[in-house]
Amino acid sequence: MIEKMTRYNFILLGGEEEKFLADLQELGVVDITRSFKPVDDASNELLLKAESLKSAVAFLGVQDFPDVTPLPVSAEDPAEETALLQRRLQDVRFKLEAARKEYSLRRPWGNFNQADLNELERRGYKTRWYCVSKKVFSEAWAELVPLQVIHEENNLVWFVTVSDDPDYSFPVQETAAPGGNYTTSEELVRQYEEELAEVKGHILGLKENIPAIEQKSAQLLTDLDMYLAGKGSESAVEGYIALFEGFAPVEEDARLAEAFDKMDALWYKSEAKVEDNPPIKLKGNKFTKMFSVLTDMYGRPQYNGFDPTPFIAVFFLLFFAFCMGDAGYGLVLVIAGLLLKKVKSFADTAPLVVTLGLGTIVVGLIFHTFFSVDLLEVAWIPDGLKKFMLPSKIAGYDGTMVLALVVGVVHLCVALVVKAIYATKHDGFARTVGVWGWTLLLVGGSIVGAIALAGVLDSSVTKWILIGLGILSALAIFPLNNLKRNPLANTGLGLWDTYQTVTGLLGDLLSYLRLYALGLAGALLGFAFNSIAQTALGEGGSVVGWIGFILIVVIGHTLNIAMCALGAFVHPLRLNFLEFFKNSGYETSPRNYTPLQKTNNNQ
């Protein structure tokens, strides 16, 4: 779980910083950021100029017009010139789009004399304009009122009528009269296109000056540092104000308020928001805390996201045990973990090793494997216990392979549900209908399929349930995937999303076969060592044979455990970091919670 944070802001006079930071260090829970406000207008001006140059470089860096020739441009004030060109670029693009739209409306009507139309209107004649499909257009309309077809194109007919009868009507909607001749609009489009090319050329010309702009920005920041350093040395005379920003868990609010009131600083607090970039502290129980190190390997979640550690804890443990797949190897890990507890530098890792070992023992017994010996073939194992072991074949396929795919389906379904819940939390249901559609289709379909395979539902009932799920999901995925958007646009985006989802999920699901492959490879290698050791022992069971047998078994299985453990660590991480995080929409935060304390450790 992501702990809620409180944002604190502190204001204090210069010279009090060291004592203030020492007091925060004693409290041990405040993640602090130190900053200084510009002390006067001069430093503020330097800062603003440097930031404007940085913004100019950011804008110019992404501009690329391959069909435009760079034009010379004045770079006396590159920031102001960039801002001017940016505004002109937006303005000309807007005008060009409007002119093109106007041209497309006027073009079918051709050129006409507006003065003649005005004269007709003065004499009491009304001109009406129409655009209809050819199927709707009727030649008989010309018998009712004077009618002239102006243009025909793409199964459409443009025509006008002239009449002094104000009451006549056609069973079609009138079209707005063109505002003028299309040649005027055509000329305007050409004019704006030339202006746009000119603006782009100036932007490319200014882009060639990016190195000089960056150098100037760096020089301004250097000047600012020197200026503030000079002001700092004069603090005994003029003084300055130091500002600090800090974050601490909400549960510490009462204790910190009492402590801050005793300090020589003005302070105020507010609820931390995502835009404040608060540090991320994860809170969990003893079980999930062991796996938080895995979350940190990828990156902690955003402040408004979800903590993946509980999911990693369950599925990494399962996947690790699946890849090891041997109860004997799990027993070795448990013993190793217990020994690591006595080593100070590994004491924090020892519980995780023990937990992984216990998980491997359980899964290894289900896979009926103990140091690569098949327990199903051991006579002294009770038949009642063997019933809980995984059968070698399920529906004609290798049982371990089938189980790997089943686990993969469950893992992906959990990711889809998490994605739907948090997407709705952030963006609202109206914008995430499509996400729920995919969740309903894939998760709901998987559940119904599992129930049907268990024989709980009749085949005809299953068929109608799946049809219903398909219809609801199709509506949510295509026309209704975003209720704030046009249904036609939704349908097009839904088709693209379908292609990405189907191809992506198929590849993701097949990735879980690595669990089966790694477990099988370890089992076969362990079996090979057992066979070699048995050969070395021979039938007589001599002392030399027993020595060879023990050496081969110990060395062989030690190497196998090491290789299996490496694969069982890396590949489950991959399945969580890639398959689960991608399908759950997981995003990371750039900042971990690192409070100021006597011994500063990440929390």
Features:
single chain, 603 residues, alpha+beta, 4-stranded antiparallel beta sheet, 3-stranded antiparallel beta sheet, 10% strand
What do you see in this structure?
With 603 residues, the chain is α+β, with helices and mostly antiparallel strands. Among the domains are: 113-179, no CATH class; 306-432 and 482-584, no CATH class. Helices cover 58% and strands 10% of the residues. The strands form four sheets. The protein has a four-stranded antiparallel beta sheet with strand order 2-6-1-7, with helices on one face. The chain has a three-stranded antiparallel beta sheet with strand order 3-5-4, covered by helices on one side. A two-stranded antiparallel ribbon has the order 8-9. Residues 229-238 have low confidence and may be disordered.
